[in-house]
Write a structure and sequence with these properties.
single chain; mainly beta; 3-stranded antiparallel sheet; 3 strands; 0% helix; 37% strand; globular; binds zinc ion
Length: 41
């Protein structure tokens, strides 16, 4: 199983990992709209 990420902004599933935030959360970036998101999981 792989984590399935969907951009909450545009709904795209073309989201890639983009390192970690300072707080240690996984950071993600949508390649469609370019928005960065940090999730709990
Ligand atoms: Zn997006």
């Amino acid at each position: 199983m792989k984590p399935y990420l969907i951009c909450p902004t545009c709904g795209s599933d073309d989201v890639m990992k983009n390192g970690m935030t300072r707080r240690g959360k996984q950071n993600h970036k949508c390649r469609d709209c370019g928005r960065q998101e940090s999730r709990k999981s």
